[in-house]
Amino acid sequence: MASRKVHLGEEQIAKLMSLPETGMGYHLVDLYMKDGTRRRDRIVLNSEFLVLNNDETIVSEAIADLSPSASVRESD
To answer: Sign (positive/negative) of CA torsion 13, 56, 26, 65?
Structure first.
């Protein structure tokens, strides 16, 4: 089954491009949504495509901020 992806906004892409990758071609991030919720350990490919779970719908406009995943920060 093909993975579902959302293209991130220009500001989100610029932020990710300024951060080191978690691994080759991807970032592991926490998403902070405009509704106040947080979605942890999410994969972003090539600094621009958020990989969605099968049971969710997210639009880039609903994302207030993103940052390296807490699990990545703890392993440093």
So the answer is: positive
Tokens for 2?
């093909």
Report the alpha-carbon distance of residue 59 to residue 54 in Å, rounded. 14
What digits encode the pLDDT tens for the residues 23-72? Answer: 999 999 999 999 999 999 999 999 999 999 888 899 999 999 999 998 76
Question: Where along the chain do its domains lie?
Answer: 4-75
43 membership: H or E segment, kind and range: strand 38-45
Which class for 61: exposed (0-12), middle (13-18), buried (19 or more C-beta within 10 A)? exposed
